[in-house]
Amino acid sequence: MTGKSKSNSTVDVVLIGAGIMSATLGVLLKELQPDLSIEIFERLDVAAAESSDAWNNAGTGHSAFCELNYTPQLPDGSVETKKAVSIAESFEVSKQFWSFLVRNKIVDSPETFIKSIPHISFVWGDENVEFLRERYNNLQKSDLFKGMTFSEDPKELASWMPLVMNERDPKEKVAGTKMELGTDVNFGALTRMMFNYLQKKENVSMHFDHEVRKLKQNDGLWEVKVKNETTGKKRVVKAKFVFIGAGGGSLPLLEKAGIPEGNGFGGFPVSGQWLKCVNPEVIERHNAKVYGKASVGAPPMSVPHLDTRMIDGKKALLFGPYAGFSTRFLKHGSLLDLPLSIKINNIRPMISAGLDNLQLTKYLIDQVRQSPEDRMVALREYLPTAKMEDWELETAGQRVQVIKKDEKHGGVLEFGTEVVTAADGSIAALLGASPGASTAVSIMITLMERCFSDQIKTEDWQKKLKSMIPSYGQPLNGNAQLTEEIRIQTTHALSLKTA
């Protein structure tokens, strides 16, 4: 049955998209101000089914311990660590918030969503070994990387990752770094637990199979037009604040909102695939996240890694991701997503970014054309004894990299996340991908500082924020004692192994 109902509700907050970002913001706001009314709309029939799902994530537990794309090598040969330090600090903020959730029974036992697992960087060849050594030396200047180990000894590396070193050429020059403090996070499980908590709170409504069709500001309120995809009914919800946290679907909704701050933004979709191990013996013999260097021209989400994960309570082993191209902005999206996102205000930035990234386009074309044998060649660089019958191809999620205006180049392709907020703070959208989920708490705090600027300065909110995030308002980098104290607390609360 189809139909249309007039608006009969006004709420404080509307969250669009049931992923880790909306869940994090919803819990933060509800803890800070319990009387807030919140409505959540998700176009699919379950939470965390797109970018937050474990099979769709390009990486879990991003803390910059092993991801080499966060420490780029500059033209002079030096290694830049600023981004890695920032991400590592943001991840510590996330762990503090998750510890609060566990202590206060907001989420179930921590082992259901987070596990301790070593993070390893692994490279081969003279130049790459020198790069990794330089990276290691520079990261030692930060308290956040205390405990990292560097080795060029094949025997020691074999003790870290037996399968990776098994039957490797003994003459090959190799090196690795290891952080025992690393973790694996199932963001799908965490997201669903947070939404389960929110749905039990007063003045919170969650709607699945609901798609937001229009956004329009009128008399200081946002009119959010929503369609129930099951019944066909439409209604309008008025909201004081709207958060667009719909992953790859955020850009089209930001364009519909029509705020000046959203002009000039475009999106470049990148799809992915995994090789999933189906041999239990192989899965059991590997216990680490092993990251290498990306191919020239590869986007950050395509940094190759041999990745141990816990998915649906079972240990899994993935390799990839292999990049691809689709015009969809979501795994369950439309092939028209990309063409329909092109507007007069963003066509120049998108063309400019495309011309500046022809190497990326070539890389994606080559990836799409790969045969199963080609994928095995890439896997055997990390797992020399890999057998084709032990691995199956699994479709991963979609990522939409941000394209934004740039005075000098016309448009640039960004590989991080971007929070776009209206001048009046009444609406915000999160665009982009990596590192995304791992830094969700820091991103949402930044959003609240922009959109709830008066409330966040109050003594009540400040006190509550510090109870949720003990380091709130203090930098961890450069403060060895505070970093150690925080890590002891979160390691205990999250039942992680002591580093």
Task: Describe this entry's structure for a reader.
With 499 residues, the protein is α/β, with parallel strands linked by helices. Helices cover 32% and strands 26% of the residues. It is built from 16 helices and 21 strands. It has helices at 20-32, 82-103, 126-139, 154-160, 162-165, 187-199, 250-257, 280-285, 337-341, 347-356, 358-368, 372-380, 440-451, 453-456, 459-468, 480-493, and strands at 3-4, 9-16, 38-41, 114-116, 119-124, 149-151, 174-179, 183-185, 204-207, 210-218, 221-228, 233-244, 266-277, 289-291, 305-311, 314-324, 391-395, 399-406, 410-414, 417-421, 427-432. Strands 5, 6, 7, 13, 14, 15, 16, 17, 18 and 19 form a 10-stranded mixed beta sheet that branches. The longest helix is centred in the N-terminal third of the chain and has 22 residues, at 82-103. The chain is globular. The protein starts with a strand and ends in a 6-residue tail after the last helix. The relative contact order is 0.19. InterPro entries: FAD/NAD-bd_sf, MQO.
The whole-number mean of residue pLDDT values reads 86
- Based on CA atoms alone, the radius of gyration comes out at 23 Å
Which geometry do the CA atoms define?
Answer: globular
Helix content: 25-40%
Q: What is the count of DSSP helices, taking H or I runs of 4+ residues?
A: 16
What topology emerges from the helices and strands here?
Elements: E1 3-4, E2 9-16, H1 20-32, E3 38-41, H2 82-103, E4 114-116, E5 119-124, H3 126-139, E6 149-151, H4 154-160, H5 162-165, E7 174-179, E8 183-185, H6 187-199, E9 204-207, E10 210-218, E11 221-228, E12 233-244, H7 250-257, E13 266-277, H8 280-285, E14 289-291, E15 305-311, E16 314-324, H9 337-341, H10 347-356, H11 358-368, H12 372-380, E17 391-395, E18 399-406, E19 410-414, E20 417-421, E21 427-432, H13 440-451, H14 453-456, H15 459-468, H16 480-493
Parallel strand pairs: 1-12, 2-3, 2-12, 3-9, 5-14, 12-21
Antiparallel strand pairs: 4-8, 5-7, 6-7, 10-11, 11-12, 13-16, 13-17, 13-18, 14-15, 15-16, 18-19, 20-21
GO biological process, one term: tricarboxylic acid cycle
Transmembrane segments: 12-29
Family: Belongs to the MQO family.
